[in-house]
Description:
The structure is a homodimer. The first copy, chain A, is α/β, with parallel strands linked by helices. The first copy, chain A, has 15 helices and nine strands. Helix content of chain A is 50%, strand content 13%. In chain A, strand 8, helix 14 and strand 9 form a beta-alpha-beta unit. In chain A, helix 4 packs parallel to helix 8 and helix 14 runs parallel beside helix 15. Chain A is globular. The two termini of chain A are 17 Å apart.
Amino acid sequence: xIFVDACFGKETPYTPVWxxxxxxxxxxxxxxxxxKAGNFLNLCHSPKxxxxxxxxxxxxxxxxAAIIFSDILVxxxxxxxxxxxxxxxxPVFEKPIREKKDLDKLIGGKEAADKLDYVYETIKLTRExxxxxxxxxxxxxxPWTLATYMIEGQGTKxxxxxxxxxxxxxxxxHEVLKKVSEVVKHYLANQIRAGVDVVQIFDSWAAALEKDxxxxxxxxxxxxxxxxxxxxFPNTPIIVFPKGIGAYLDDIDGDFDVFGVDWxxxxxxxxEKLGAKYVLQGNMEPCRxxxxxxxxxxxxxxxxxxxxxxxxxxxxxxxxxxVPVENAKYFISLAKEVTKR
Amino acid sequence: xIFVDACFGKETPYTPVWxxxxxxxxxxxxxxxxxKAGNFLNLCHSPKxxxxxxxxxxxxxxxxAAIIFSDILVxxxxxxxxxxxxxxxxPVFEKPIREKKDLDKLIGGKEAADKLDYVYETIKLTRExxxxxxxxxxxxxxPWTLATYMIEGQGTKxxxxxxxxxxxxxxxxHEVLKKVSEVVKHYLANQIRAGVDVVQIFDSWAAALEKDxxxxxxxxxxxxxxxxxxxxFPNTPIIVFPKGIGAYLDDIDGDFDVFGVDWxxxxxxxxEKLGAKYVLQGNMEPCRxxxxxxxxxxxxxxxxxxxxxxxxxxxxxxxxxxVPVENAKYFISLAKEVTKR
Lengths: 341, 341
């Protein structure tokens, strides 16, 4: 499988390519299924429909990997936190974690992970239908990103609730992070057993932490999860994507295989700091997909920096809903063409 | 004046300190004046009230510099763009710039800058009342940040409107940036003539651009403004604050005096890359003000990194509205005490 080979740094006929949020609103076919499902969470809960949208970008835009359609917040949801997607506001937990009793109420470990059966079912259905030479990616949020949602209760600009906890009661924050980490370990293991070929850990809110705090409250948990998964599944590549920590790359280490580079981190810098140790994924600025000229410029530049080695093409963040499908197709085919050996 | 000396890298009895957004909602005295003014924009437009809130943090928390109470968006407002502050949404321009005729309608250069007389009047009133040994800081938004608001029409997460313009019609975006730059030059010059001792250029949305695009669409305009001001007012220190470009510090240059370090950029990194060339300002993580322990830890760490040289203490972003005033006072007095020679 080209994608898995590339994750392990092996030579491939071309640099494989996919897009974060590739199963999403820019595709009319996705919007149709989404409508059928009624709402976003229903879509996550329906293996048949989730599998359908997971496969769409492979057929329509020609990516080399499908990523399971789901949401990182299904994990806290199945730990027992009621989740709503409020229009215009995004995800909301009505009863965020603020004290020990809130945490103690939540289901942990394997028991919580096993409740995510609709995800594993989606994986099975998808792996059956997906071409054998295409990879299926499973994913999770990093404990820090999940815990931040669970503690704040919703999206935030200032992270003031979780930061207050971090500074006033770091032990308790660590308790939350440990509990989430244990669920995530079992969740990823279950996903791999169900059939995913690769897993990605999204740390979307990495940049909410200062450097030292990042390593203490986020990175160590990611590393711990990576070690756990690597030990049990050495043949499954692991991608990490901590968004917005371009200024901290010197201290990045761990047993993962691929480091996802966000678009705010120059690819040259990522290559200099991490390229020898890890395969790099990324990092075209997603708004470039509004313009074919801008797309071509970036594809050629990134290809020239990476020399078509130890690289997986992707955007540096999720694809936006108003991108023309034609431009997404152009990006995918150009990335393959330009990197052909 | 200790503050001005420190900006020029001269030795001072202690490291001077102030806080971004120090004239703000965390102060009950501010809230009272704000109520009197009716709304935020009225407060900016009333020199007597604006001067009153400008002076408050000097008296109440003991900062070494006052920063004129105003908003970066008064500039596009006086260029002719109608501005509303919508509750919960922030600033909104009803008619954003989307094409040439929108730009052509706007007033430019000295004519627009001269319309900001209420700012200059605020400066005069404040300078009269402010202690002679305290500095008065004037400020502006960087052309990129201002233009982004003017083009998007409001706050944005994706910057998709301005990015579409950047990729499809970069020449026109440059026209917008040039027109804004010319107003900003006259605006800063007028502020200095009215009595400010230092000026700061805020590039709050610097991180919305990729590295190369940052230098093309933002930094060159900042440098141009800096050169213009330096030539006419060599004794007025200039502080720049491009937020979130910690991964691009290698290419930073220009005739400014102080580089403002955001809290996401480790101070060690900023010192290594820029400390020899520029005085550094910053960069305590603002949420640390929720906890005295966390404040002390950061003040001591930053002081130890900077060795109390070529440094101005500040937060790495604005102070939050729910910070206890007592903790702000503690930060200010501790920063002075710890850095005392």
